[in-house]
Amino acid sequence: MSALNSLVRVHSWALDEKRQKLAELDRLADKLRDDLVALEQEMAQEQTAASGSIEGSIAFPAFVAAALERRKRLRQSIANIELACEAAREEVNQAFQEMKKFELARDNQTARDQDESARREQTAMDEMGVDMHRRNNPADVE
């Protein structure tokens, strides 16, 4: 029985590790999305600032080229992280199913052990009842 408990514990730890990995990937994806939004806002602010001055309008095309390249890299990174998140979700799902399989086996074993114990107890009580009946009614024995 302790083997099943150990298996449940090991699979539970593995599940927790996979969940933590998934959470880290989700946080990274959120950070990249926030960076993308911040970049879009910065581009809008720079466009407004560039339209107000000659120096700004001269430097603006270089800024736009760098910002567009950064936006492209951010979007690619987000796509890669989302693929990794899907893979991690699948790993979490499989680990959960494995853990549940061992939990059910442990619970079934516990139920069988309890049934066997109850059966033995009932058998002992039945034998005690028969013995007491024989002692109280010696005429019925013959």
Describe this structure in words.
The chain is mostly helical and 142 residues long. The protein has a single domain (2-133), classed as Helix Hairpins (Orthogonal Bundle). 94% of the residues lie in helices and 0% in strands. It has two helices and no strands. It has helices spanning 2-51, 54-136. Helix 1 runs antiparallel to helix 2 (54-136). The chain is rod-shaped and about 125 Å long. The model has no long low-confidence stretch (mean pLDDT 90).
Instruction: Using the 3D structure, state the CATH architecture.
Output: Orthogonal Bundle
Order of helices and strands: HH
Q: What structural class do the secondary elements suggest?
A: mainly alpha
Low-confidence stretches: none
Total separate domains: 1
How many whole angstroms does the radius of gyration measure?
Answer: 35 Å
The proportion of residues in beta strands is under 5%
Q: Span between N and C termini?
A: 47 Å
Q: What is the helix tally?
A: 2
Share of helical residues: over 70%
Principal-axis shape = rod-shaped
- The total count of strands amounts to 0
